[in-house]
Here is the input.
Amino acid sequence: MTRPRAPRVLLVDDVEDNRGVIRQLTRRMGIELIEAADGLEGLRLARSEVPDLILMDLSLPGIDGWSATAQLKADPATAGIPVVAVTAHAMAGDEERARAVGMDGYVTKPIDLFSFRDLLEQMVRGGPA
Amino acid sequence: MDAGKQEPTMTVGADQFRLLVESVSDYAIFMLEPSGRVATWNKGARNLKGYEAKEIIGSAYERFFLPEDAAAGKPRRLLDRALAEGHVEDEGWRMRKDGTRFWALAVITAIYDGDHLVGFGKVTRDLTERKRAEDQRRQFEMLVKSVTDYAILMLDPTGKISSWNKGAQQLKGYTEREVIGQPMHRFYTPEDLAAHRPEALLAIAEREGHVEDEGWRVRKDGTRFWADVVLTAVREDDGTLVGFAKITRDLTERKLAEDLAARTLQLQIANKLKSELLANISHELRTPLNSIIGYTQLVATDDTLTLDDLNAGNLQIVLRNARHLLALINEVLDLSKIEAGQAVIHLEPVDPAQTLHAVLTTCRPQADEKGIALSLEIEAGVELVVTDETKLRQILLNLVTNAIKFTDQGQVDVRLMQVGETRWGVCVDDTGSGIAPEHRELVFQEFRQVDASHTRRQGGTGLGLAISRKLAGLLEGTLTFESELGRGSSFCLELPRQLGIAAEPALPPLVAAASAGGTNEPIVVAIDDDPEALRLVVENLKGSGFRVVTASSGESGVHLAQTIRPAIITLDVMMPRQDGWMVLRRLKADAATADIPVVMVSFLENRGLAIQLGASESLMKPIDRPALLATLGRFGPKELA
Here is the structure.
């Protein structure tokens, strides 16, 4: 009997400090984190690694988070992976645009570590541990 | 007469002379007997009057006159004057044989043989054509002089004014006497004079025949108007410059409307830039905050670290301040969104009791911490309303947290109640510090907390109540308060049960009351999103004979106007969603309301635009009673005027 593998989360964010917070949080939670610093890299890793969840910043160099998500949702190989926007875009209409390209969740920065932990648990383990 | 002394070539016999006279065809030349009967006749007379010699000789010359002139004794009078003065000249209408008229210049000369009156010589010319041309010229001159919408004037070749019409007097304020002979320079602004604009315009008109110009000009009283000017050189057939015709039109209103439109466009662009700027600022501020809050929380929750109380407390201070900064950012953005009219309202059925329960659950830890009792009282009857739940929750959350924040001991009571048939309300009563009467004005102002020390002690951005009140306005409701210093405050939110025109089931209470009163007082519908402004209209019209019905949004205002057809409407310009201009257009486009006079009420001077868009008048805020009454009297029902 094989031990169930640790959940894997792909984080796409161009700011190292932002990735660092989530890196430390997921380590504590026993979640494997894959990191990408731009949209193109994010798309490549999403296709090769097929993670359980993608955390997607929206303002990214090159391909931004909206179009990266739209591409993932258009590809049957990746369409099933839930994508949650983690973004500092908090103005009216930002969330609607994100939902429109197929995002499954929307979290506004600054993230609150406690509620973000609950969200992650729910998304990758189907509920709080 | 001695014929031998005369030059033979100069000798003209009487017969020859008679032949000469008879052959003249352009002048009627004939003799009258002393009695006034026609004695001789020439070709010109026949051409002019239409009679043959044989049918007219021997007739009284009265028959050449109009019947009314003949009846008035004019023929005799002329002869008498010719007798008295030797000869007489007369200009006037005469009649031909066929009854048609012509304008005659007649000279009658008494002819004597020694002392003996032989008769009268009469020479008559037909000046009908000249008379007609002269009449036309005079009529044209009168026409030009009487034109009031255009200033029409003539300048001599040096630019001095030689004629002046009524329009010029009205437009520029000078009488004819004051300006004739003066140069046109006095109409120009000092800037234009310094730039030699009048000379330049005259030079162009002289060179090219014609020049058009637009610009500010100065009236006699020093005020300025925006002039549209056409200057045309007037020349004789041989090319000699007679002068210039100058036609000026007052386009001030159009200019102001154009300026306002340009300014509005600029404002719209500025507003768009502001929104973009805010979005960017928001994004840029959140990014570092994300790290501050995130890493602090990582440290604070790291089980592998042992933090003493002091350091654990320090981390909490960092977190609290970071969250305060975040709250500030959020609220500033909220406020600017509401003020820019960008706040979107999502209507949905809401159970207010449920929302209140949720709000109290959120606030309870805060109350417990301070040892304050928190109670909820729900009056039956407010089961389901239509409003924007998120905004409602934001207001309620703010009112309850505020009450707890400013109460050190005692309780906070939240009451849900019905207000009339169509509205409902929530009051939040506290036993806190209260608000002194002199501080009432500050309560809803941005970044103002009555007691500044509270900001440090209690936190809070000072924006909560300002936002709450604006949100209440968006939901077509009001937020008011009662307070006594040292005893507590009571903040009450009042909202319509059904927000939105389509859902509006009945008239607001004020109208219902008005209808029940059964009086015949004319109704004023006042439309303004600011409750204070509405209150001002109501106060100002107390005892004026008008009854005021208020609407707190353009939508409900249009609805009200269509339903009750008021005598007059006052309309605020700056309103969220539908601004005053849009409401004005809707009112004027609907046959049911098109005839109702609308008075625009605005902080900006935009009367020109208002009138152009169909408003009857425009008043500046803040409204004062005499101006309001005068305007309502002018456009309201006649019996009150």
Q: What stands out?
A: The mean pLDDT of chain B is 83. The two ends of chain B are 92 Å apart (CA to CA). Residues 33 and 432 of chain B are 122 Å apart (CA to CA).
